[in-house]
Amino acid sequence: MPAYDYRCRVCDTSFEVRRSMTESAPDSGVTCPAGHVETSRVFSAVAVARGVSASGSPAPAMAAAPSSGGACCGGGCCG
Ligand SMILES: [Zn+2]
Asked: Would the pTM count as exceeding 0.85?
């Protein structure tokens, strides 16, 4: 059973309302646990984050190796 997040604009309380699968989430008419009707539905950020992936080429992190070769023995620290 899905749960929908709501926030009361009077007492600033976040609560969730569980609805059945056949019922859609109401945008109004939901009362908070304290009995206020000035509530608004809160949408989670999970659904918003979709669609961002696979938009460009991934940057190869291992391809940009330093090619100067002066790691240790070139700098004189080995002996
Ligand atoms: Zn309230």
From this structure: no
CA distances from 50 to 42, 45, 46 (A): 17, 9, 7
36-51 pLDDT, tens digit per residue, is 999 999 986 654 445 5
Distance separating alpha carbons of residues 30 and 41, to the nearest angstrom: 9
Interval between CA 61 and ligand 1 midpoint (Å): 50
Q: Average per-residue pLDDT in the chain? A: 74
> In the beta sheet, which residues pair with residue 40?
7
- Per domain, the residue ranges of the chain are 3-42
Residue 5 contacts residue 26 (beta carbons within 8 Å): no
Q: How far is CA 50 from the centre of its chain?
A: 9
Query: Is pLDDT at 76 greater than 60 in this prediction?
Result: yes
> If you measure from the C-alpha of residue 1 to the centroid of ligand 1, how many angstroms do you get, rounded to a whole number?
24
